[in-house]
Amino acid sequence: MENFQLENKDSIETKACNAIRKAILSGDFPPGKKLVQEQLARQLGISRMPIREALKQLEIEGLVKIEPYRGAFVNEVDTEAIHENYVLRSELEKMALEKAYPFITEKDLADMDSLIKGMDQADHEAFVQTNIDFHHLLLKRCPWKRLSTFIQVLWNGYSQQTPEFLHGQMEKSNEGHKQIVQALKDQEPERASSLLHDHILNTGKRLIAFIEAKDG
């Protein structure tokens, strides 16, 4: 299946989690399907341990249900949970950028420009990783460490893979990045934060529309 394969980034556990999540959200693994660890490990060419840990993470996200003595099964995709994730991200990342703004350097802005240029030329897989790098750089100067931790938890899920599902998402997303960075350069932190808020919220709306259209 084209939507079930490892990506060339992160740990083996994260790769396995991303591959299974992608297969679920794309419909390759339908609701009710039993996810057999040995079979998944064999298909991905890895051991069972990262599969086991990946399934635990996907259970936290609500995509998988692990039943004692029976195994792991694919859940119905909960669009309300996805909506909650993106609403929380939009509000928390808006706040984090406001807090980070006084500490963002000229080098940070130059590095953001470099990442944006890279995303203009990237394929889906490269875009996913560069997009993660961009958002981390955008918020890395935030002095509120608990806030940063909350945001990272929300990032461990759907956020990473939307460019692989949504038609035109890479172009829409990178145009949003350009607008955010320009607002920072113009010394308009409130506008930059509002743009980031809308950038995240609109991505969530497009992802939910994709899932509902696929299931409809």
Order of helices and strands: HEHHEEHHHHHHH
Shape: elongated
Show unreliable segments: none
Total beta strand runs: 3
- By CATH, the superfamily of the largest domain comes out as GntR ligand-binding domain-like
List key phrases describing it.
Arc Repressor Mutant, subunit A, Four Helix Bundle (Hemerythrin (Met), subunit A), 2 domains, three-stranded antiparallel sheet, 10 helices, elongated, transcription, transcription regulation, TF_FadR/GntR_C, DNA binding
Report on this model:
The chain is mostly helical and 216 residues long. It has 2 domains: 12-74, Arc Repressor Mutant, subunit A, CATH 1.10.10.10; 79-215, GntR ligand-binding domain-like (Four Helix Bundle (Hemerythrin (Met), subunit A), Up-down Bundle), CATH 1.20.120. It contains 10 helices and 3 strands. The chain has a 3-stranded antiparallel sheet with strand order 1-3-2. Helix 5 (106-121) runs antiparallel to helix 9. It is elongated.
Topology (SSEs and partners):
Layout: H1 12-25, E1 34-35, H2 37-44, H3 48-61, E2 64-67, E3 71-74, H4 79-100, H5 106-121, H6 124-139, H7 145-155, H8 162-165, H9 169-185, H10 189-215
Antiparallel strand pairs: 1-3, 2-3
Helix pairs in contact: 1-3, 2-3, 4-7, 4-10, 5-6, 5-9, 9-10
Q: Short description, anyone?
A:
By secondary structure, the protein is mainly alpha-helical.
